[in-house]
Amino acid sequence: MRKRLKRKRIILPLVVIILGALFVQSEWLGRWIYPISFTDEIKQNALNYELDPLLIAAVIRVESNYRLNAVSPKGAVGIMQIMPDTAAWILKQGDFGSITVSDAGQKAHAGIALGSWYIKELNRQFDGDMIKSLAAYNAGPGKVRQWLDKGVWNGEEQTLRDIPYGETRHYVQRVMYYYKKYQSIYETL
Fold first, then answer.
1. CATH code of the domain occupying 34-185
2. How far is the C-alpha of 134 from the C-alpha of 144, rounded, in Å?
3. Largest CA distance in the chain
4. Active-site amino acid positions
5. Segments making up each domain of the chain, as ranges
6. N or C: which end of the chain has fewer CB within 10 A?
7. Which of 99, 100, 113 is nearest to 42 (CA)?
8. What is the chain's Cα-based Rg?
9. pLDDT digit string (tens) for 64-102?
10. pTM score
11. What gap in Å lies between CA 171 and CA 167, rounded to an integer?
12. Is the torsion defined by CA of 123, 125, 129, 135 positive or negative?
């Protein structure tokens, strides 16, 4: 009797672990836990601005979790949490048709277009360095340049702990987490 009980204590957890591992590794479960919304808009803007659509999706996930009308305590708006002043500046830089600053905070296509353009612009400013560009998306490019110039942070992912703003440090870590997670679940959008 004791041997049976002992065997059950070992076998049952082992079966649960095996089933759990199979369950976690399934593609449908990953897509259910880490869904991506607004895929058409993301794909179009990724194509327009030569960005990885999964990176755009990761930024959206961290910024607003796909909520269109999100507003941050600091006043950033929309799905990609653009500051209204930044949105106005972006609109002056490119041809965005009839998109307005208020559209950035209310419409997926507008917020994703402006946010994607801004990521591309930050990539240009930081020579294609995604980590620095993500930090700049959160803290501003001037602040990131200041950290780099003063040697406070060297701009590498391995040294994110050196970023003086905890919010920016955690922001870049979270975007990279979701970006890598999306890459492991979605081959492409």
1. 1.10.530.10
2. 10
3. 79
4. 63
5. 1-33, 34-185
6. N
7. 113
8. 21
9. 999 999 999 999 999 999 999 999 999 999 899 999 999
10. 0.86
11. 6
12. negative
